[in-house]
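Translate sequence into structure tokens.
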Amino acid sequence: MLMEIFLSVAFAAAASQKERCAPAEHDRSSDMICVNRNGHCATVTIDGQTTVALTDEAIAARVHAIKHGEDVCWQLAQPVSTKFRANFKAGGLNPKFLGSAEETKVNVYELDDYDPKVDSRLDSLSGVGMQPDGNPNGTWQLHSERPLPTGEYVVVFRLYGTGNWDRQAVLLKLDPKIAPGPADKGTLAGSSEK
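Result follows.
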């Protein structure tokens, strides 16, 4: 078991965060720049905070030493609600890649729940998902069958648009004492009606 932990730390150290999270090597106008699906072609906002690149190598090594199978390339600076609201828009390196928002799905990993003495890997929580507050281009709220405790999490957003899809794995802290951001019902496609 100790050897597995050592190897996973060694592997995480072998790939720098910059290498792990780099977009595909293509012209910025090409859709191929987005094929790595690591969030460079979407903008995600969670309870009013826009995700930013996770560039700190020490934090990235700690997060990737936990076996969860995700390339965590994004983070939030401040904690958010355990019932946060998020929305996404086409953006980043090739905004036309995604098109208009259609659906958001998540996998949620509770990092504080990982114990290397007993866990070979960290599985995503079951019974957790996103529900729209209205139209797909509005906010989506995180719902969980069981209350989520305060702690550090990786939330992997799978973002589906009319043109394609992208994903962002975000390191963040959840706190049940924080109120979720306001709901935004979005607009109907082709109208200004909410």
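Note: Residues 1-13 have pLDDT under 50 and may be disordered.
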